[in-house]
Amino acid sequence: RLPERLAESSEASDAARAMIEVATRVMEAPAALVALDPAHGGSRWERGADPAAEVPWAALAHAPPTSLTDAERDDEVQRWMRRARFDAVFPLRTSSRFIGVFACATPRGSRVFASDALDGLRASASALAVALDRALALDTIRAINASLEETVRERTAERDAVRLRLFQREKMSSIALLAAGVAHELNTPLGVAHSTAQQLVEELDEARHGARAVRLARLCVEAARRGAETVNALREFSRPGERDAQHFYLGECVSATLRVLGPALRAAGVEAVVDAPDLPALRGHPALVNQVLMNLLNNAVAAMPGGG
Questions:
Q1: Is the CB of residue 49 less than 8 Å from the CB of residue 86?
Q2: Residue 269 contacts residue 307 (beta carbons within 8 Å)
Q3: Rounded (5°) CA angle 188-189-195
Q4: CB within 10 Å: which end of the chain, N or C, has fewer?
Q5: Global pTM value
Q6: Which residues lie closer than 8 Å to 125 by C-beta, 6 or more apart?
Q7: Is 67 exposed, middle or buried (0-12, 13-18, 19+ CB in 10 A)?
Q8: Could you give the C-alpha distances from 173 to 104, 145, 168, 243, 259, in angstroms and in order?
Q9: How far, in Å, CA of 156 to CA of 102, rounded?
Q10: Alpha helices of 38-88 — where are they, by DSSP H?
Q11: What is Dmax (Cα atoms) for the chain?
Q12: Helix/strand/coil for 10
């Protein structure tokens, strides 16, 4: 029944252990070995064999189908058989390649293998070679499938990351267009309010119209000025339609971002202290730099729940 068990094996270890079990338990061989050629991984399964006896792979690859102990021969295979205490060696081959080796000792109390036992071992070794060849092919297929699955996972992750970046870019572009539109719509009325209030301040006479009227007019001028600055900062912050890199100054990005975040900073009780040296112009996309600065400042504010 050994060939049937070997035919059902899909793992090299299962086939090798089945062969060793039959040799050592059924045939009562004191030592048995199944080993794969290093070109196929070099795995080794044994029972009772001397693990220190190095397998002569180059000689076995060209050895005859069966090698029995022969006191008159002294080649490399025979020397290895004597060191490892094997009496029969069967190189495992298929029609296309050399796979490994099966070796075993004679049953206890015997000096040589009976002819029927030797024939059974030859047939089993042939079946083992086919089973190992199939198991190695399956391992290769599994490795290829695993590699393909990993590649698919990596490509899917890369695709999702690109999609997210594109989504974020489109979202920021939409926000930038909206901000630019709002800034454009607010800029004109704020300019009118600022210039009108400034004219009132120049025309009002404190003695004639009272100090309160002059103070209110000045408050209108200051409010309109701050509103215009906020609108300009919003427009500078978004800078819609930028496709190509351009020269810009980092200090201007910091100022624009702080003006946009001013209300949030004040509400959180956080003061932003700016130390902006005279840096040279950079080349890039200032709207994206503004986004980085905004994220950094928002994170800093979130990390300061008590203000500061």
A1: yes
A2: yes
A3: 90
A4: N
A5: 0.51
A6: 19, 90, 92, 102
A7: buried
A8: 76, 41, 8, 11, 20
A9: 45
A10: 57-60, 76-84
A11: 137
A12: coil
Pure H helices in the chain: 2-8, 12-21, 57-60, 76-84, 115-203, 206-209, 211-238, 250-268, 286-302
Q: For residues 60 and 78, is the Cβ–Cβ distance under 8 A?
A: no
Return the axis-axis angle of helices 115-203 and 12-21, rounded to nearest 10°: 160
Own/partner contacts of 46-49, CB < 8 Å, gap of 24 or more, are 46/20, 47/20, 48/24, 48/105, 49/84, 49/85, 49/86, 49/103
- Distance between CA atoms of residues 216 and 196, nearest Å: 13
Q: Which structure tokens are listed for 149?
A: 């699955």
